[in-house]
Design goal:
This protein is mainly beta. The chain is built from no helices and 32 strands. The two termini are about 55 Å apart.
Length: about 450
């Protein structure tokens, strides 16, 4: 029977019984609590409880003095507390820790009887006798002898019906390795022990019986006996026998037990969860401008002169893009005298006392190139007067990704109007276009 991984159980060992009350494990931490009861009529002192803890580290504990060597832990009598443990006394014990802690093999490994109370109970009063019958096979398990920490068990099987039994098997739990055995084939997986027949006792004829036996040099006793006759098992085996471990190389955070259902034929399984599958699509963003300049030609007083260029964008930015335009000069500057500008002199910024106009606007293409039905795009619909060189004017913005194709996404339109007193010269401005993808 597997212990310590999201299961509660009661396990008896002379003269203490253990009942698990808390067994929580959340991957990065765990808590484990149990009650220990002296089930004898005699006080017990100098007791030592043993268990194994894998894949975790204890950070707090109570109910005893905890020491360890690697994964093997001992709980010893904590001075005046529960030492000795009185007859029928119950003590709470437990611990919490970090990691994916799994507790197993909780048992009493040493103790001393105290005087009074009629003396220590005889060991055979704690060893349980078993009597099971299934599919015409009678099983009786009794104690043959006990001395010190040793005991031997007689196992009697008998065909109690008028038809021959062709195959039988016995299974039981014992948290130790057997010291000796007789008249069987024996195998062990963790704490699961299996008895199968030899050639001469495979078939059991009507009313025939065989006596088998084993001895063990431990204070931990056998339990959970099962009978299998011609492929059928009774009682239903207790699930949760650990036969292996599921793990991930390099980390204990995923470690889980592989549990066997106790049947032959049967199954064993375990699930390692949260294994990550990852991939990446690298971001892409392209902007193509149709020309390196916009020539507005020869300007005539009072007549608007207009020119434009086109911009195509392609991106896989999930929240679309924005294109901004910023004037480097704050207007069309006279190439012979940089104190003279063509711009709206009524605005703050770079002014020369002349009332002119220099505007930017943009028009979004009538056909978009996005595959998303909720794609939307906007431009600089209201012309903006360009009077300074710090403002980023948004000329194109979208809310979804779009492909790069032959359809231009936005037309950038420049318009200017001069007056009769605008000085003759060549004029120019430089524009910085910035595209930003919202990934």
């Amino acid at each position: 029977m597997f212990r310590g991984y999201l299961f509660s159980f009661v396990y008896a060992a002379s003269p203490f019984s253990f009942t698990v009350t808390t067994d929580n494990n959340w991957g990065s931490g765990f808590c484990y609590e149990f009650t220990t009861e002296n089930i004898s009529a005699t006080p017990v002192s100098d007791w030592v409880i043993w268990f194994e803890l894998t894949w975790g580290t204890i950070t707090s504990s109570f109910g005893g003095v905890y020491t360890n060597s690697g994964t093997l832990y001992e709980i010893r009598t904590p001075g005046a507390y529960a030492d000795p443990m009185a007859a029928w006394q119950t003590v709470n014990m437990g611990f919490c820790g970090s990691g994916n802690g799994v507790v197993s093999n909780l048992e009493l490994i040493d103790y001393a009887w105290m005087g009074g109370g009629g003396g220590p109970p005889p060991p055979w009063s704690i060893l349980e006798d078993y009597s099971l019958s299934f599919n015409n096979l009678q099983l009786d398990v009794t104690t043959a002898s006990v001395w010190g920490a040793w005991y031997c068990r007689d196992i009697i099987i008998e065909n109690i019906w008028a038809s021959t039994i062709n195959w039988w098997q016995l299974d039981f739990n014992l948290d130790a390795t057997l010291s000796s055995s007789y008249s069987w084939n024996f195998s062990q997986v963790w704490n699961q022990h299996t008895i199968t027949p030899l050639v001469w006792n495979t078939n059991i004829i009507p009313w025939q019986s065989y006596t088998l036996w084993f001895c063990s040099d431990t204070t931990v006793y056998d339990y959970n006996w099962l009978i299998t006759v011609d492929g059928e098992t009774w009682p239903i085996p207790e699930s949760g026998n650990q036969i292996g471990t599921g793990s991930v190389v390099g980390t204990w955070a995923y470690d889980i037990p592989i549990l066997w259902d106790g049947f032959f034929p049967g199954t064993a399984s375990g699930s390692v969860s949260s294994i990550k599958i990852k991939a990446r699509v690298n971001p892409s963003l392209n902007m193509t401008i149709s020309a390196e300049e916009i020539d507005l030609g020869v300007l005539v007083s009072g007549v608007a002169s207009t020119g434009s260029l086109f911009i195509e964008v392609g991106t896989n930015a999930k929240s679309g893009v924005a294109i901004t335009a910023r004037s480097q000069n704050g207007g069309l500057v006279n190439t012979s005298d940089n104190s003279i500008f063509i711009n709206n002199d009524t605005q703050t910024g770079f002014t020369d006392g002349l009332a002119e106009s220099y505007t930017w606007a943009s028009t979004v293409a009538a056909v978009d190139d996005s595959g998303s039905p909720s794609f939307s795009a906007s431009g600089l619909a209201v012309a903006a007067e360009i009077n300074e060189n710090s403002t980023e004017h948004t000329i194109y913005s979208t809310n979804k990704s779009e492909t790069t194709n032959l359809i231009d996404d936005v037309e950038f339109v420049v318009s200017t109007t001069v007056g009769a007193e605008t000085p003759a010269s060549d004029y120019e401005d430089r524009v910085t276009f910035t595209v930003t993808g919202n990934f």
